[in-house]
Amino acid sequence: MGWVLFGSFFLLLLIGVPVGLAVGLSALIVFVATGIPLQMVPQTFFEGSSSYALVAVPFFILAGDILARGGISEKILAIAEATIGRVRGGLGIVATFASMFIAAISGSGAATTAAVGASLLPEMNKKKYDTDFSAALIASSGCIGVVIPPSVPMVLYAVIAGDSVAKLFMGGFIPGTLMGAGLIAYAVWYSNRRGYPASEKLPPRAVARRFFDSLWGLATPVIILGGIFTGYFTPSEAAAIAVDYTLLIAWLVYRTMTFRRFYELVVGAGVTSALIMFIIGTAKIFGWGLAFYEIPEAVAKAMIDLAGSSTTLIYLMINVIVLIAGFFMETASALIILTPIFLPLIAAIGGDTVHFGVVMTIGLAIGMATPPMAINIFVASAISGRSLEQISRAIWPMVIILAAVLFLCTYVPWFIMILPNVFMAPQ
Fold first, then answer.
1. Secondary-structure breakdown of the chain: helix, strand, coil percentages, each rounded to the nearest 5
2. Per-residue b/e over 95-108, b at no fewer than 16 CB within 10 Å?
3. How many CA atoms lie within 13 A of 42 on its CB side?
4. What is the model's pTM?
5. b or e along 162-188 (b: 16 or more beta carbons within 10 Å of the residue's beta carbon)?
6. How far, in Å, CA of 237 to CA of 76, rounded?
């Protein structure tokens, strides 16, 4: 039945069936073939999407959209350019640094790419930066959006694995910072090699004005993440507060939000959230089929038999599978499908599920910048006017840097676990 389940799933994908439907239909085929009562289908579907933690998903998506279209990201980019942008190739540093900061608000790679790209690409073009390089850097920096907390994929993983969302969020800080540092180093090297200019030096008064103008936006991640880690509110409550705060800033402080625009953002976030929830529901049915036929245990046994006692080799195989999945599947879909398959294997080798959750998030985040299912490249292409192929050629050195961070964090768990172990009380 395992072959029937996965075979029908990949066959449906090959003929163009959307991932959410393919997941559910493949499980349904197995249910019908083996006589499992079909009453299980709606019951399991709604059970999969009824977790309280999932309340955070639509709110973080909406907060990211408000950030991108509410003028907040422009203010943050303005102060970053006025300070960091004054060195040679500084706009490349600004692109990555701003992505890291905006990621701490949006929780979405695509939203981060859109916010930074729309604001910074025109300025980089004015400074004669190569457009392919600029678009590739912004797209690869957008991958940090789901690693630095808050992170929608981490929320999904926490629901499936039964882990602490706060611990996963804390574990993403250092890996996200390493990803950003690697991209900044490459941007500085490339910019100096090509002789890209620095931004103009602004008078101290203008810098101060930009700083105070951006102060409301700069306070956003402090409020959201500070509230989570100090225990004032849960991640789900933080997501709602993120929407309230960013909306108030955009509406009352920067005055860039209108009723019509807000309505469009709510509708867009609702559609995106509905798609994710549908995938979660169908994946729950798929996961029930996996558990019923003990497929995860069989996969774990096969990989252990293949790798012997080498956890190094097991993690290598997992990372390769995750990276390949990221090439062809959307991040949330791949995470929801792969997590129940690999969790028994991680338990069998004595691995930490928080460490594994962050590692898998990093691996799937890289998939956002690797064709053919590279959502960040699609966004950067739409903003820059460059083709998918042109940006893809320029992005590979950056993908290699991100992959190096993935393997570093995989084999040196300290980078992920130090903050949860030090600052998070056992739960």
1. 80, 0, 20
2. bbbbbbbbbbbbbb
3. 1
4. 0.83
5. ebbbbbbbbbbbbbbbbbbebbbebbb
6. 24
Q: How far apart are CA 323 and CA 316, in angstroms?
A: 11
Instruction: State the alpha helices, DSSP H only, in 252-372.
Output: 259-292, 295-307, 311-328, 331-348, 353-366
Nearest to 30 by CA among 288, 301, 284, 280: 288
CA distance 146 to 127: 29
Residue 276: alpha-carbon gap to chain centroid: 13
C-alpha separations of 59 from 20, 97, 240, 246, 361 in Å:
21, 24, 6, 11, 20
Nearest to 149 by CA among 218, 229, 80: 229
Q: Which residues contact 18 (CB under 8 A, 6 or more apart)?
A: none
Whether 206 contacts 107, CB under 8 Å: no
Give the CA dihedral 314, 315, 317, 320, nearest 10 degrees. 180
Cα distances (Å, whole numbers) of residue 236 to 57, 87, 250, 419, 426: 8, 40, 22, 21, 20
Rounded to whole angstroms, the Cα distance separating 158 from 171 reads 13
Q: How far apart are CA 377 and CA 139, in angstroms?
A: 6
Cα 29 to Cα 11: distance, rounded to the nearest angstrom:
12
Query: Token digits for 406?
Result: 């993935």
Q: What pLDDT sits at residue 90?
A: 78
Report pLDDT digits (tens) over 222-270. 888 788 778 788 888 888 888 888 888 888 888 888 888 889 889 988 8
| 31-35, 318-322, 350-354, 418-422: segment of lowest average pLDDT | 31-35
